[in-house]
Amino acid sequence: MAARGSYAKGIAKRDEILTTALRVIAERGYRKTSLRELAAAVGLSQTGLLHYFGTKEDLFIEVLRKRDDVDMATYGPDANQTDVIQGILNVIRHNADVPGLVHLYTQFSAEASEASHPAHGYFQERSAYFRQIVSGAIREQQETGQLSAALDADSIALLLMASSDGLQSHWLLDDTVDMAGQISHLWEALTRA
Q1: Which pLDDT tens digit goes with each residue over 130-163?
Q2: Under a CB-based contact definition with an 8 Å cutoff, are residues 85 and 137 in contact?
Q3: Would 6 be classed as within a structural domain?
Q4: Count of domains observed in the chain
Q5: Residue 25 lies inside a defined structural domain of this protein
Q6: Would you tell me how many other CB atoms lie within 10 Å of the CB of residue 152?
């Protein structure tokens, strides 16, 4: 019975670390957040912190997964009874409030283009998952007559995701870029033409 309690405590501590890391990285930035600071924020040594994740890269991959989970629960279509496109726009608007997490995402996504990077699989899975969700939402709107059946749902989903990722990089360089406004404009151009 003690093993189950230890396991549950380990899961709870891991979740505490990820929740704390989301907050600290969002506030301080990816480059300005050290493992020592994250460990201290949850009452652990650096070695103790890495015990839960293995490597620094694995920790940051799990931070990105946690970010996706929180964003979907908070801003996704199920959270506020809105459609998938509106959910995407909600997440993009939220990203303007968490520049450190946007930087972590863009940095890791660029590095993960190499197959040997530990985050390569995460980004492949994430991309496939979100493309499926967005293309499915487009197909639903096509079935109800909201969108033209002539539209290629898979292509539009890919263009939206690529544009969103690219806009995040531009926004990090120039925070006056209205990411959500640009994606909204693209959506209208792609679907109403």
Answers
A1: 999 999 999 999 999 989 999 999 999 999 999 9
A2: yes
A3: no
A4: 1
A5: no
A6: 12
- CA-to-CA distance for 193 and 191, rounded, in angstroms? 6
* Encoded tokens for 179: 């990411």
> Can you read off the two tokens belonging to residue 94?
């939220």
Residue 20 within a domain: no
Cβ–Cβ under 8 Å, residues 86 and 52:
no
Instruction: Write out pLDDT tens, residues 29-87.
Output: 888 899 999 999 999 999 999 999 999 999 999 999 999 999 988 887 665 556 888 88
Task: Give the residue carrying structure tokens 């995407």.
Answer: 88
Joined together, the tokens standing for residue 161 give 């995701």
The model's pTM: 0.87
Tokens of 4: 């189950």
For the chain, the farthest-separated pair of C-alpha atoms sits apart, in whole angstroms, at 62
Checking 133-140 for CB contacts under 8 A at 24+ apart, the result is: 133/84, 134/84, 134/85, 134/88, 134/160, 134/161, 136/84, 137/77, 137/83, 137/84, 137/85, 138/191
Question: Which domain range does residue 166 map to?
Answer: 56-192
Residue type for 123, please?
A: F
CATH number at residue 100: 1.10.357.10
For residue 155, which phi and psi values (nearest 5 degrees)?
A: -65, -45
- Which tokens sit at 29? 């930035």
